[in-house]
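fyi for ur records
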Amino acid sequence: MQGRVEWTGEYGLKCINSNQQSLDIDWENGPSPMQITLQMVAACSVVDVIGGLKDRSFSEVWVEIDSTRAESAPRVFTSIQLEYHVKGNVPLKLVERLVEKSHEKYCSVSNMLSEVDISSSVVLHED
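which gave:
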């Protein structure tokens, strides 16, 4: 995997992957790199959960995120709490198992943060 990050002036960055797809970041007026990292932990795991629910009836999946960072530099994440929400007719135990397996094995982003205490919970919503 390759990429490039270019400074675009003031607080702007352009993140470009090897397919020339890009993501623009304004760290002063938009999500910071740390905020994006936090969101990517949830995004990576949601991909795993949705993949595991492919044969089930559901309409929405989202994750509420909370985190704590170190007080002094480097201000790394010290804990991340993820609350998974699924709207549809799915077994709670299945979603809990998918979330657990995601962070245990499949989600590369959360596994890179192995020194961070990442916790999660699941909330089901009826259609």
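Residues 33-52 form the longest helix (20 residues). thats all i got for now
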